[in-house]
Amino acid sequence: MNDPKHPELHVNEEPSNDFIDTALGFGVFFGVLLLIAVAATVVSLMIK
């Protein structure tokens, strides 16, 4: 059983929580888009 394709032999070195990873990704992406939107609004109000 030295075949590396066997899932039983695969050692998960870093156990991860997929839900937390996904939620964190959405949160960070939302934050970046919110920052861009606020910056664009401030710039458009300064131009007027």
Automatic annotation (TrEMBL):
Segments crossing the lipid bilayer: 23-47
Record's keyword terms, sorted: Membrane, Transmembrane, Transmembrane helix
Transmembrane helix in keyword set: yes
Protein name: YqzM family protein
Species, as recorded: Paenibacillus radicis (ex Xue et al. 2023)
